[in-house]
Amino acid sequence: MALPALQSPSPLLNAALVVAVIACIGLLLGERERLRRLLLRSIDPRPLALFRVAFGLCLLLGALEVAPLRHYLFSDEGLVPSPAVAQLYGREATVGMGDGVRSPAGFADGWAVAHYVASGRWSPLFHWDSPAAVDLVYGVFVAACLAMIVGWRTRLSTTVAWLLFAGLLRRGDAHWGGEQVYAAFLFLLMLSRAGAAYSVDNWLRCRRLARRGRLCLAQGPGEGAGSPPSSAHPEGLAAIYRRVPAWPQALMIVQLAICYGANGWAKHGPAWARGDALADALRLDRFARLDWGPLIAALGPWPLRVAAWSVLWWERLFPLVVVALWLRACAHLGLPAARSRLRAGLWLALAAALGIWAAHPEAMRAGTGDTAGDDRAIVAGLAALVIVASVAARGRPLRLRLGARERRVDRAWCLRWPLSLRLWLGFGLLFHALNALLFNVGAFALATLAAYLVLLPPRPLAAGVQVLTRALARRGLPIPAHLRGDAPIAAERTDLPDLPRDGVALPTTALAAAAGLIVIGGLAAVAPEGSPALGRWHAAWLIAAAALLLLQHRSAKRPAPPSDTTWSYGPIGRLAATGVAAYHLAALLLWQLPRWPSLPRRDAARALVAPWIELSHTPQVWAMFAPAPPKQSRDLRATIRDAAGVEHDLGTELHRADNLRYPYLRQDRWRKVHENVVGARPGFARWHARYLCRRWALANGGEAATSVTIERLAAPLTPPEAGDPIAYFRAHAEADSLATIDCATEPFAQPDDELRARHGLPPAPPRTLHFAWPKRMPADWEVRRRSLDPWAPLWPLLALLLAGATAAAARSHRRSEDP
Prior knowledge:
The protein is of the alpha+beta class. Among the domains are: 46-211, no CATH class; 508-623 and 793-813, no CATH class; 633-758, no CATH class. It is 53% helix and 6% strand. The strands form four sheets. It has a four-stranded antiparallel beta sheet with strand order 8-7-9-10. The chain has a two-stranded antiparallel sheet with strand order 1-4. Strands 2-3 form a two-stranded antiparallel sheet.
């Protein structure tokens, strides 16, 4: 019998959700020792370095894809002119800046600067956005990508690349399509020490050490992995590859799991449930590398349905890879799970909460078109059963009898079969290979694939690099000696005396109190109706962080027995890393809260972490071909009527013989812009028409066009048996007007005097420039300032002060850097 749809949040479901949150926090606290030994240890730097190179190449390729559109997207001669940036892109960052029309451009006063800094929405193009300025910013961004790839001043170049990449997208994002992949991983790469291997930085470091006789050579004592002080080397010998912190790499793994998992669960449309989504996607001429109609007809529906369902469930269940890596790492490091009745009770409480939600699939639907509610309920129910079975087994292997055969189900079997990395990553490699063969979606898909490098063990990766470098050396290229050997050298030894191995640790009660304070602060912030009280959330985190910092600082001064784990930092550094990782992870998880009626305060909870998502520029929008691929092909048609009344078709439709050419090899970002204008973001249609008015006037000696019309042409997807997709589209397309504007009177449709002077044109006649401003943006700065939260700049300031105090306290525990 079908369960009735929930009309309002259920108290039972709310209680189950609270129990699940408390149980998860309790389990994390119970696993604190294993977590800190895994996340705060130091690890081999080579997987992260290889990811830096591969990801940097993808980021550079993505920059080259967008380069032809840079003036349209980011400059004052493009889609959005400078005076309109504040109302379309600036948000709170530009509320204190003049628009250059009603008030002088620039900040109104110091309070405006404070709000700009506090907003976290920074961009150099909010201040200078001429085509020359865009070229300069874009050139520096490309140079930073190149420096990041080769590893020259890696931390600085990665930070510059992140700042400029975020700044470009904050000025213009009409081409948005996969940029969230770059943004999410670039921020984490900036936090890591990705230049400790395979980099110019490390080569220069090794050369300086070799000149001083302090480098551990591959053929000498220590074999490149470092050597403790001895009579021959009183200061010891430094390793070629220094160990790096593990937690940024762990966050990258979690981010990849969120990327796939959220994308899979967002695919809840009927086409994915039927298995027709892949066949529909192959008929999208905007992405297809070839006309795949004959292939679809030859294969028939069932192979494509099996492939679609396989990809769907592989994405949805990809977070199991995190579980597999956790179990492997704990087994490798010899970290057994602590067993107690409290721990078992927390697991059973979590299972009960999952079971309650599993019994209400209607509560896990985003709307009437969401077909995945039953799937979510099944997964939740299976997870609850697995938890109960694991608790009942008490660490003993389960024995399943299948006929005459008995199957022993233990951790080794799980890691060998259902949680096998070869299975999950092998399918991912096959998926991305076929995706690259069938579609041209851009370099972001390759960037996702590059993240697989951080999931792999370092030795096979280093051995693969060694094969490549030996081959290059045989061809006469100058390759360092340690990369020309038969086998890769080891990373830095863990027993060197300068590596931190102190036993300082915060008590569980202190961590539990901090977690409780944060949860209470979050609940107090989202409880009131309306906008959340962000101050309570920020205050809870800052108070908890300050208290833990004081406690850790006092603990670090007391003698403590050494630990058998080689840490990445001293006690204060470990606390700071834990805080950053915990906050970022909390932000990612809260941002992924689904839009279910059973989660009425979902938007308020997301608003708590919105400032961090903005500051880090890690938007979590994972919805490719979700909830289902489009059922129509859509084109943009732009028509200009000049002053003489002659119409000019700009030929922007994709389904033209000179535009739709196979094979589709080079990524054309104009296709994505047009797709956004006629599809997900039709509000850009009017701005695109205004841009065409301005461009026409600049190209025709200042003479304005009479009008511009933007139309959407839509036709059903081309059937496999239809043949020519262009002919089919033209025969079945229907036109829908999105915008028709008068270039003489439309706001922002005339080039201002600065643009006219730049193109050698005289100033515009009086009263011929037209502008429009939303009511929320009055001309008077004093009026605008009253709508702002006066306490907003306080929280970033307090966070900076706390960060400064943490850095000062950590200085005495910092490992000395090699010269």
